[in-house]
Amino acid sequence: MSQVKLVLAHGSGAGQQHPFMQSIKAALVAEGIEVVTFDFPYMQKAIAAGKPRPPDKMPVLVEAMKAHCRGISGPFFLAGKSLGARVAMNLAAELYQQGQKVNGVMALGYPFHPPGKPDKLRLEPIENLSTPALILQGERDTFGARDEVASYGLGVAVSFLPDGDHSFKPRKRSGYTEQGNLAQAAAAMLAFIKENG
């Protein structure tokens, strides 16, 4: 598995150094996966300016992630947190159309809809996929909770993190822990990589 590479994109509000990103990366690296993280152009500007900026348009985000896939040979996967998951799925579809094989794509907290707006669904990136996919979702994610996602009839594998929110964090009274859910997410990613690598 030492040959496997994964390009991992961050979510809209926090860059590659966020503890969520670093935790997932460390767990995969420990298992011999080469993980590439990066900051989207708008995030680089936000960090430099010291204040938040809105995300770039999807074509800009896809192109930025694509730049980190150039020159990769052998098995490779795409993954992303929230917004990064949408970017990863759009890029996987684009690369497939261009004849470049992506072994699989993984979503960490897919933003199925904006919080409080369940009618504004973002299923198109998932429906356009021709590559194997895995969605890891918190059971009570405000961007798509378990009962909502179950009704979508998705043609991809979805694994739910117990009592998890959009970043897989459970409530204290649930008996589950954030670290436990992150470990479960990383284990599911590894199993997916082994199956499709």
Sum up the structure in keywords.
alpha/beta, 197 residues, Rossmann fold, 6-stranded parallel β-sheet, 7 helices
Summarize the topology:
Elements: E1 5-9, H1 19-29, E2 34-37, H2 41-49, H3 58-67, E3 76-81, H4 83-97, E4 104-108, H5 124-127, E5 133-138, H6 146-150, E6 157-161, H7 178-196
Helix pairs in contact: 1-7, 3-4
| CATH 4th-level superfamily | Alpha/Beta hydrolase fold, catalytic domain
Q: What is the residue-averaged pLDDT?
A: 94
Q: What is the CATH third-level topology name?
A: Rossmann fold
Oligomeric organization of the protein chains: single chain
In CATH, the architecture is 3-Layer(aba) Sandwich
Report the portion of residues in β strands.
Answer: 15-25%
Helical content class: 25-40%
What's the CATH first level? Alpha Beta
What is the end-to-end distance?
Answer: 8 Å
Number of domains: 1
Number of helices: 7
Gross geometry: globular
Main sheet: strand order: 2-1-3-4-5-6
Sheet with most strands: 6 strands, parallel
| SSE pattern, N- to C-terminal | EHEHHEHEHEHEH
User: Which stretches of 5+ consecutive residues score pLDDT under 50?
Assistant: none
Give the structural class.
alpha/beta
Number of beta strands: 6
Radius of gyration, in angstroms, nearest whole number: 16 Å
